[in-house]
Amino acid sequence: MTSRPSAAALSAAAQSPAIRADGLTKRFPTPDGRGVTAVDAISVTVPRGSVTGLLGGNGAGKTTTISMLLGLLLPTAGTVEILGVDMARHRHAVLPRMNFSSPYVELPHRLTVRENLTVYAHLYGLTCVKKRVQDLAEHLDLSRFLDRPSGGLSAGQKTRVALAKALLNDPELLLLDEPTASLDPDTADWIRTYLERYRLRTGATILLASHNMLEVERLCDGVLMMRQGRIVDRGAPSALLARYGRQTLEEVFLDIARAPDDRILAGEAADAAE
Ligand SMILES: Nc1ncnc2c1ncn2[C@@H]1O[C@H](COP(=O)(O)OP(=O)(O)OP(=O)(O)O)[C@@H](O)[C@H]1O
């Protein structure tokens, strides 16, 4: 159902967290019929204006989680509210207020950067599209290759274009899957600084999946640690360092990734108690 939320629901929504997921689960079918549980009943609350890191090893369930938050994948079970709006019922009311970028989603190769951004700007229903594209190109240092086909850009240039696409509608909620994957340290630092400034300027909420622990320590107020589809720990980076008695988030990550399964279950108990 995609009916419009009521006035009372909209007023309550304004007070709600940026993301609230409850019991969110995704099971994929597999050819052997056993299926794989990519995301296993996770419950997450992300406050407005925060930057939250979604961490976990390969296959932990980060991309699947982000896809469900975006409404790109239907959950097998559980609920998602974005900016107080129930994604299952009123997804179209909130989609214009959010956006995402992912290295796994390529823009059409043959279109130029300008054409791609223009198409997306129209899809998002923006007015003054020409000026918006021009302004973003300047902010993200894209002007030199605005008229080149998107497929011919380097990985770093593509990442900046993907970020421009994600910022076209000035999203209140930005979901980023590995925003600095395969970037050189200079470009990665540039993107992080840009994101910090965007958050400060707009008060937007950012959820980012990352394998770069220094990035997470620098950008994130809070961290969600995933393993085998579950949230096994969470907290501010400083709180996690203290809890594990470690100096760096990378060490904490390794502790969690290498812990025996009974530690995972302990994390689940903490999750349920939240
Ligand atoms: N369409 C699909 N069909 C079957 N299994 C899937 C599908 N998509 C994801 N999976 C499985 O779900 C699990 C979680 O995958 P996901 O891509 O969410 O992990 P991830 O944490 O983003 O990993 P990475 O860090 O490697 O990108 C993995 O076991 C993966 O093989």
UniProtKB/TrEMBL annotation:
Gene3D superfamilies: P-loop containing nucleotide triphosphate hydrolases (3.40.50.300). Keywords: ATP-binding, Nodulation, Nucleotide-binding, Transport. Pfam families: ABC_tran. Residues 19-253 form the ABC transporter domain. GO terms for molecular function: ATP binding. SMART domains: AAA (SM00382). InterPro entries: AAA+_ATPase (IPR003593), ABC_transporter-like_ATP-bd (IPR003439), ABC_transporter-like_CS (IPR017871), ABC_transporter_ATP-binding (IPR050763), P-loop_NTPase (IPR027417). PROSITE patterns: ABC_TRANSPORTER_1, ABC_TRANSPORTER_2. Belongs to the ABC transporter superfamily. This is ABC transporter ATP-binding protein.
